[in-house]
Amino acid sequence: MLKIFLILLIFFSLGSLHPFVVINDLSPEEIWTKTEFVMSEHVGYSGYINVNQTMDANLFYTFWESLDENPNAPVLLWLQGGPGCSSLWGLFKENGPLLIQSDGSLLTNPWTWNNNYAILYIDNPVGAGYSYVTNPKGYVTSESQMSQDLYTALKVFFSKYTKYSTNDFYVFGESYAGKYVPAICYRIHEDGNQLNLKGFGIGDGFSDPIPQVNYFADYSYSTGLIDEKERIDIKLLEADLKLQIENQEWDNCLENFLQILHQISEFTGGINYYDIRRYQPYDSQPITKFLNSQSVKDTLGANADWEDCSTNVQDYLKIDFCKSVKPLVDVLIQSGYKALFYSGQFDLIVNYMGSSDFIEQINWSGKQNWIDSDRIVWKNNDEVVGYVKNYQNLFHIFINKAGHMSPMDQPQNTLDMVSRFINNKPFS
Ligand SMILES: *[C@@H]1O[C@H](CO)[C@@H](O)[C@H](O)[C@H]1NC(C)=O
Ligand SMILES: *[C@@H]1O[C@H](CO)[C@@H](O)[C@H](O)[C@H]1NC(C)=O
């Protein structure tokens, strides 16, 4: 039982932002906090869920009810990758209702996934984004620990936001969340699916390293970024890395993975391997400045410094980096959960080729039919925007003119994809 105390009511302007209204609502157990706020006329909720009291490990969440006010709207969880990157990047740069512009101002996102879905963004694992942990032993070093903390958070969340506890639930994530998404879905499944999980979506996700580290050379060569001689050099590095993974030598796996990308970067004069149309890196300054301003922290009830990606979290997860979650994906797909994998055309780091190879090897009863199924042309507003391979509950979608972060590059088409996937609407 919660009593709502009106602790704080602040109006202020920050640059070009609209006024914020803050209402704090703290539970007596201190296991969680809830702040209701208004940001640029959008109501949101945020706070911390203590997932391990011994370690003082706290996951930060922010929750946005569906803009169409449908009480039965499916709830989507969004998880960023890294490892160690904040899911608020996805909120404010990709699919959330408000996007941070390069000048630091907020812009309403007409293609937000929030139009018809409630979205829960969690800074995961502890130590990422605004999430924090006091005892260093609380940092996670495996997908099993990650999903234990995250599952605790989800159970607390749905026990507090009870009106959402019977809605359909989907887990979405990007990049290294290709590990997190199957790991949390598997834990939910294993515990009798008490959260009404219907399916999951993984964008440019790293889930199964052996096939996925095998295509840096081929992708770069086929797009003309490297020549045949350079291709042979990269292939040798890939073969070394594959051997290490087969021998379960986890310690230097991340370094060697990054070494391949550095080599490609050198050959290409610094290509952005998240989007080969770019040479410059993404600018994280505006969002970093925004989320570290005291006024925004007060609004969101955040009490940690924010960085887009935590090297600390990444260091603790280094030994997890090259481990595969394919066995979990196998079980989830065989069990009938809807699975959406999508790949941006211009993403090198987790490219379409590697993901296709991994998906083709998923061990389920539809495997051969999957391989034999014809890919179809996906049109949105009469324009070809991608290609869809589907058999039963498994989808792999190629997104035209997108890099690693499809919702940022192709917001309208990515929203169309998510809507069709959730509503079981055909793509042609
Ligand atoms: C808290 O974290 C420690 C260290 O990882 C772990 O041994 C323990 O099981 C965790 N407790 C809970 C309740 O998850
Ligand atoms: C595929 O799944 C079946 C059924 O779960 C299992 O018996 C078999 O060992 C799996 N094969 C591989 C290669 O994982």
Automatic annotation (TrEMBL):
The superkingdom of the source organism is Eukaryota
Question: Per UniProt, which keywords does this protein have?
Answer: Carboxypeptidase, Glycoprotein, Hydrolase, Protease, Signal
The protein's Enzyme Commission number: 3.4.16.-
Q: What class of enzyme is it?
A: hydrolase
Q: Which InterPro entries match?
A: AB_hydrolase_fold, Peptidase_S10, Ser_caboxypep_ser_AS
* Family the UniProt entry places it in: Belongs to the peptidase S10 family.
Q: What is this protein called?
A: Carboxypeptidase
